[in-house]
Specification:
The longest helix is centred in the N-terminal third of the chain and has 31 residues, at about 55-85. The protein has about 300 residues and is an alpha/beta fold. The chain has two domains: about 1-150, Rossmann fold (3-Layer(aba) Sandwich), CATH 3.40.50; about 155-298, HUPs (Rossmann fold, 3-Layer(aba) Sandwich). About 50% of the residues lie in helices and about 20% in strands. About 35% of the residues are buried.
């Protein structure tokens, strides 16, 4: 399952929870934890090798000194996390990089061949989200591997998991990950399916028949999980997938919510968003966005 975890650390008030959540997953699967802090360069991006007319040499020297200071402080802080992890029996390594946050983290994922990214979810202003999008949203959309977004609280136990399930391959993959976690934690799995209501009268009968078929398939799925020694039940309700998932998340307060990440085009994400993105944005609890390794975003 997960053997090489990359953890984004920005030293905000959620960083301890992010690192501790990664440590919890690492213990479950015997994984290595790689910590990365990305320092955005204090030197303006338009400054090239020829600084004449842009910055005075003295100004450039000051900016370079600031960058070195930030790197030194980040290394010292990450070293404390590394020591803490190693004392807990977890193999750990740290990286401090200078560059654009999203691009640098994505590059590091490929470089170390990580199979899980762990990041914190921050609340940002509406204008920030509209104009820029959050770092977490961008990483969830662009990461080639599954992403655990730590929100609300650290992940230090898993007694209950909630899985968004729509019968597509991505949600089946999310359920497989939930099963692996359940085997190790003896946690209960709640399978949630949102059935989209049909407004055309001619299609109501077809929709009703399909709904009954879905119920039978979900019952069979729960029975299969029971035969595999896992505790599970399902909830089927009509409505928008993200809203239904969040409603049941609020009802059951699962320790972990799992969502399969389906490939979507850039235009779809800009104008409609996708279920995983919406759940990550609005959730107040940890969310694991499961990415199929053979899919990449456009």
């Amino acid at each position: 399952m997960f053997k090489n975890i990359l953890v984004g650390v920005d030293f905000s008030n959620i960083s301890d929870a992010v690192v501790e959540s990664a440590a919890f997953i690492a213990k479950l699967f015997g994984a290595k934890v790689n910590l990365i802090t990305v320092i955005e360069p204090p030197i303006p991006s338009f400054v090239g090798s020829d600084i004449d007319g842009t910055l005075e040499a003295e100004e450039l020297e000051i900016l370079l000194e600031i960058e070195k200071t930030l790197e030194k402080e980040a290394n010292e802080k990450l070293e404390q996390y590394v020591n803490r992890l190693q004392k807990d029996g977890i193999q750990a390594e740290k990286f401090v990089e200078v560059g654009l946050i999203v691009d640098t983290i994505l590059d590091k994922l490929k470089e170390i061949r990580a199979d899980l990214l762990v990041i914190g979810g921050h609340k940002e202003g509406l204008i920030d989200k509209i104009l820029l999008g959050s770092t977490a949203d961008k990483l969830v959309n662009k990461s080639p591997v599954s992403t655990l977004v730590v929100k609300g609280k650290k992940l230090d136990k898993i007694d209950t998991q909630l899985v968004g399930y729509d019968f597509h391959q991505s949600s089946k993959q999310a359920l497989e990950v939930a099963k692996e976690i359940a085997y190790k934690t003896d946690s209960e799995i709640i399978i949630v399916h949102a059935d989209t209501p049909v407004s055309f009268s001619l299609l109501e009968k077809v929709s009703s028949n399909l709904l009954e078929k879905k119920k039978e398939l979900l019952k069979e799925l729960v029975q299969q999980l029971s035969q595999e020694g896992l505790s599970a039940f399902f909830e089927l309700t009509q409505g928008k997938p993200d809203e239904i998932i969040l409603n049941f998340q609020n009802k059951y307060k699962p320790d972990l919510t799992l969502i399969g990440k389906r490939r979507t085009s850039l235009l779809e994400r800009l104008f409609l968003g996708d279920t995983a993105q919406k759940v990550v944005e609005k959730s107040e609890l940890p969310v694991l966005v499961v990415r199929r390794v053979d899919e990449k975003e456009d």
